[in-house]
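Q: Convert this sequence to structure tokens.
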Amino acid sequence: MDVLVMGAGVGGLAVARSLLAAGHRVRVHEQAQAMRTGGAGLSIFSNGAAVLNDLGVSLDGVGGRFDRIDALTSDGRLRLRSDMAHAAAHYGFPNKSVSRRLLLERLSEGLPDDLIRYGTACRGVTQDADRVTVTFGDGSTATGDLLIGADGHHSVVRRALWGDVPIRTAAFGTWQGLSKIDISLTRTHVHLMITGREGACGLIPAGDGMLQWWFDVRWSPGDPRPASPLAELRRRFGHWASPVPEVLAQASEDDLDFFGHHWQKVRRVWGKGRVTLLGDAAHLMPPTLGQGANQTLEDVWVLGRELAKDGDDLPGRLRAYERARYPHVSLVSRLARHSTANWRIPPAIGRLFSETSQTAMLGRFSNRLTALTATGAASR
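A:
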């Protein structure tokens, strides 16, 4: 089968690995001029790590493992402790914080040098009963048996299928970084989630003296950006209990990146004909549960399983993939959307609920696919 993939991010590279291993011809098109190296860290939970293992991607030697999540109040009191080592002990796949750049490098290892065509922005999609054609910004085209839209938040493939699907704005945005931070937490396997009336903070050891850190603040698209974001974060969060002041003291303005939280309602069927979607193109969700990349990897595993089945009805197999994913990913999306970090309610009420309680619940659901991928990998 001749497969076209739009997007060379985590989802695009992962699905390319999966389908190349199954013997298909794969061509990946990416609108950026080179591999994206920006962004901070990603949380890879056991479900995502299991899929990576099945794809032949090892996270050995990169990132930092976290075995528990401690939810704290802004004055340092423990609110809830979640044992994240349980799934790792049971299935053999640890939870890790990994640089996006390093994950993309690992996903790229061993792939053909000419697999990705950079600087090719998708502008339109047409299909008939037998083939699908993509038109690019320079007027060129590519035709294949199957098109996978892994082109993210602003997916052109999704727009070609469904028009301008409403993308909704949540109440928060995130300032994030991945930095050398010399504090004792960096040398542990503990992930801190801290909440207070000013917002929320997350801190995860990311290996090699690095710390993945972020601050969630109330946000709407029309808000002006502060002239000095780091100074604003220090003003807002600098009085919180240790280690927050130490992290802010060592952080640099160059480390900062910002993104607003958005989400879309997950469709029961998100493709048409010979075209399907995966990752943010199919189920954009806020980052509050750290499941964006993990759910994308689950998409890849389920899609690969459906395409490996016998039969000439390719559209039918794509719809089977979408139906299989809908119940689980829609649940995860709702949990992420309904996290207290995205509620438009008074902070005093929001502080009564811990978002890590939802993380613990998510862990129980995600272990289902961890078990399946672990079993599948062992049998290959």
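Residues 176-261 form a domain with the D-Amino Acid Oxidase; Chain A, domain 2 fold (CATH 3.30.9.30).
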